[in-house]
TrEMBL record:
<dbReference type="InterPro" id="IPR032570">
    <property type="entry name" value="SF1-HH"/>
</dbReference>
<dbReference type="InterPro" id="IPR005000">
    <property type="entry name" value="Aldolase/citrate-lyase_domain"/>
</dbReference>
<feature type="domain" description="HpcH/HpaI aldolase/citrate lyase">
    <location>
        <begin position="89"/>
        <end position="179"/>
    </location>
</feature>
<dbReference type="InterPro" id="IPR015813">
    <property type="entry name" value="Pyrv/PenolPyrv_kinase-like_dom"/>
</dbReference>
<comment type="similarity">
    <text>Belongs to the HpcH/HpaI aldolase family.</text>
</comment>
<dbReference type="InterPro" id="IPR047086">
    <property type="entry name" value="SF1-HH_sf"/>
</dbReference>
<feature type="domain" description="Splicing factor 1 helix-hairpin">
    <location>
        <begin position="11"/>
        <end position="58"/>
    </location>
</feature>
<dbReference type="InterPro" id="IPR050251">
    <property type="entry name" value="HpcH-HpaI_aldolase"/>
</dbReference>
<dbReference type="GO" id="GO:0005737">
    <property type="term" value="C:cytoplasm"/>
</dbReference>
<dbReference type="Pfam" id="PF03328">
    <property type="entry name" value="HpcH_HpaI"/>
</dbReference>
<keyword id="KW-0456">Lyase</keyword>
<keyword id="KW-0479">Metal-binding</keyword>
<protein>
    <submittedName>
        <fullName>4-hydroxy-2-oxovalerate aldolase-like</fullName>
    </submittedName>
</protein>
<dbReference type="Pfam" id="PF16275">
    <property type="entry name" value="SF1-HH"/>
</dbReference>
<dbReference type="GO" id="GO:0046872">
    <property type="term" value="F:metal ion binding"/>
</dbReference>
<dbReference type="GO" id="GO:0016832">
    <property type="term" value="F:aldehyde-lyase activity"/>
</dbReference>
<dbReference type="InterPro" id="IPR040442">
    <property type="entry name" value="Pyrv_kinase-like_dom_sf"/>
</dbReference>
Length: 190
């Protein structure tokens, strides 16, 4: 390595020597920061979201937000935003992929619809997508594969902010969907 360094510019040589020194420190387990203990800024007290993910780490905020601002600890509630008259933009997820759900959730949409009617997947496969969306702080709506009380109850147990019922083409079908809501023990997320 010294033969290679000898042929380089003095500034490059100094950088190479510093890299070698850092490498030696890393391998020895010694701290890289040579400032006195009191001169370093203290780590903030950890803050966790509702699903146990730390939200005030430098690495997480810089990865998820281009402005390096931490994620809001409060989830975005769809109902209150709709009542306030906000225009909301959402995306339909046609695949039950937590990876795609997380990417879509971090893209900045106001909500995601996990489509179990036309998409691939079932209630069981929707749960990892809902977890990924919750981690990205993106509200989720489940589009049900069928109009049944059992399906609605199972979907509500997963914790989405809302349900979208399939095949509502008449007032009778709408009444049936509302009765499914009433049958779900007064759950107001539908």
């Amino acid at each position: 390595m010294k033969e290679f360094v000898a042929d380089l510019d003095p500034e490059v040589q100094a950088l190479n020597l510093r890299l070698l020194e850092i490498n030696r420190l890393l391998q020895s387990g010694m701290p890289l920061d040579d400032r006195p203990e009191g001169a370093r800024s203290p780590s903030p007290e950890p803050i966790y979201d509702t699903i146990g993910i730390r939200i005030n780490t430098r690495g997480r905020s810089s990865i998820l937000d281009p402005d390096s601002a931490p994620l809001s600890p409060e989830p975005r509630i769809l109902k209150s935003r709709l009542v306030a008259g906000e225009t909301l933009y959402g995306l339909f997820l046609l695949r039950s992929s937590p990876t795609l759900a997380e990417i879509a959730g971090l893209a900045g949409y106001d909500y995601m619809v996990v489509n179990m009617e036309h998409g691939s997947g079932s209630i069981v496969e929707a749960l990892p997508c809902l977890h990924a969306l919750a981690a990205a702080r993106t509200p989720a709506i489940l589009r049900l594969p069928e109009l049944s009380a059992a399906c609605a109850k199972k979907a509500l147990d997963l914790g989405p902010q809302g349900l979208m019922f399939p095949v509502i083409e008449s007032p009778g079908a709408a009444e049936l969907a509302v009765s499914r809501r009433a049958a779900s023990a007064g759950n107001s997320r539908i």
